[in-house]
Automatic annotation (TrEMBL):
Domain Orn/DAP/Arg decarboxylase 2 N-terminal: 41-284
Residue numbers annotated as active site: 347 (proton donor)
Reaction catalysed by this enzyme: meso-2,6-diaminopimelate + H(+) = L-lysine + CO2
Descriptive protein name: Diaminopimelate decarboxylase
Superkingdom of this protein's organism: Bacteria
Family listed: Belongs to the Orn/Lys/Arg decarboxylase class-II family. LysA subfamily.
């Protein structure tokens, strides 16, 4: 990730050389700002580590689905990982291709399956036996063969936050490891399914390589059994999940992680298989900041509050997962730094963005909330009838609004009053 994407000039924060304060003035706050070079560098770190190998990167659309962001990746030749037909529509609108898109998710509807089949997605990552039956039925009605991989739950501990750990027995995701071989046999017997791969996703914000290697080992054990049963496995999808530095985490560099996984697969004698990656956070997380303005400083008996114009509806991660996002004043002030709880305007005590943050700020100042490019805007809501923020992309001193700020009237445009 380029450190230079976010830098300081005369103490003031810049994004690719553009003053963050000028962006806030021009586009208003709260404002999501993405650095195109940071997106590109993160993608290239994956792509470079994959070069010379049959390995493909499928950008997890859920982490950031803005069309401009997806388009940056599509131009770089990325594939995509989607979890709804809405995300498929975004991929296609952003210049991505269905044939490079894998469809994940535990609850795909028949209508979504049909749309994805008609569009020609590359693979359905199926998570249960009932879903296999449903997909087989949809494909039969369409007169097609659906390409399928099974998401297997390898039951490894990803050592991450329980809400974003997905590969344990206790999670709702995937086919249980113990049932996987038999489930593959069932899938292989379904006339409108074409079993082509195996898949897993063990969690998110994983800052070590070892859980991946454990998961890969379990998948490859299974692949050997499934092939002995007569079904060929073309690709191994290792999912997404590489963590980023929010605070003091020290995840491996992207290239190091990719090379370690590929080397492990090669060492196990599976180097001939295509490998899929589905990264989200590590591509976009540190490429985005959320700019917010201080409305009020409110000293309290126990705490000082900085009440800002972004709330839990704009950035849900702190409220949902007690997530830490680094914060800095956009412009350096002579004012004395104090400890603040940085909170939003939403009527909930859970509406906080940062606790006990040392900031030198005054009313009207801007705060940059870092590492907000992943699961930031996409998880935002209209709670308290708050229009969602605008999004801007900066590319070498050029800034462009890539999503307009919502207007209040849009928020209830689809509503009506019950007639007398
Ligand atoms: N593939 C699948 C099937 C997934 O479920 C996910 C994320 C990814 C790929 C991408 O994982 P990543 O590389 O971004 O870790 N909202 C939470 C994160 C939820 C992740 C869900 N699955 C957060 O804000 O931390």
């Amino acid at each position: 990730m380029t450190q230079s994407a976010f830098s300081r000039a005369d103490g003031a924060l810049q994004v690719e050389g553009v003053s963050a304060a000028s962006l806030a003035d021009q586009f208003g706050t709260p404002l999501y700002v993405y650095s195109r070079s940071a997106l590109t560098d993160a993608y290239k770190a994956y792509a470079d580590a994959c070069s010379g190998r049959r390995a493909t990167i499928h950008v997890a659309v859920k982490a950031n689905s803005n069309l401009a962001v997806l388009n940056v990746f599509a131009r770089l030749g990325a594939g995509f990982d989607i979890v709804s037909s809405g995300e498929l529509a975004r991929v296609l609108a952003a210049g991505g291709k269905a044939e490079n898109t894998v469809f994940s998710g535990v609850g795909k509807t028949a209508a979504e399956m049909r749309e994805a089949l008609d569009a020609g997605v590359k693979c359905f990552n199926v998570e249960s036996i009932p879903e296999l039956h449903a997909l087989n039925e949809v494909a039969r009605a369409a007169g097609k063969q659906a390409p399928v991989s099974l998401r297997v739950n390898p039951d490894v501990d990803a050592k991450t936050h329980p809400y974003i750990s997905t590969g344990l027995k206790s999670n709702k995701f995937g086919v249980a490891f113990a049932d996987a071989r038999a489930t593959y046999a069932q899938a292989a017997a379904m006339s409108n399914l074409d079993v082509i791969g195996i898949d897993c996703h063990i969690g998110s914000q994983i800052t070590e390589v070892s859980p991946y290697l454990d998961a890969v080992d379990k998948l490859l054990d299974l692949v050997e059994q499934i092939e002995a049963d007569g079904t060929n496995i073309h690709h191994v999808d290792v999912g997404g999940g590489l963590g980023i530095t929010y605070d003091d985490e020290t995840p491996p560099a992207i290239g190091e992680f990719v090379r370690a996984v590929l080397a492990h697969i090669d060492e196990r004698g599976h180097g001939h298989r295509e490998v899929y990656f589905e990264p989200g956070r590590s591509l976009v997380g540190n490429a985005g900041v959320l700019l917010t303005r201080v409305e009020y400083l409110k000293p309290g008996e126990e705490k000082n509050f900085a009440i800002v114009d972004a709330g839990m509806n704009d950035l849900a991660r702190p409220a949902m997962y007690q997530a830490f996002h680094r914060m800095e004043a956009v412009e350096k002030r002579a004012t004395k730094a104090q400890l603040y709880d940085v909170v939003g305007p939403v009527c909930e005590s859970g509406d906080w963005l940062g606790k006990d943050r040392e900031l030198a700020i005054e009313q009207g100042d801007l705060i940059a909330i870092f590492s907000a490019g992943a699961y930031g805007f996409v998880m935002s809501s209209n709670y308290n009838t708050r229009p969602r923020a605008a999004e801007v992309m900066v590319d070498r001193e050029r800034a462009r609004r890539v999503r307009e700020r919502e207007e209040v009237k849009q928020l209830f445009a689809g509503e009506s009053i019950f007639p007398d």
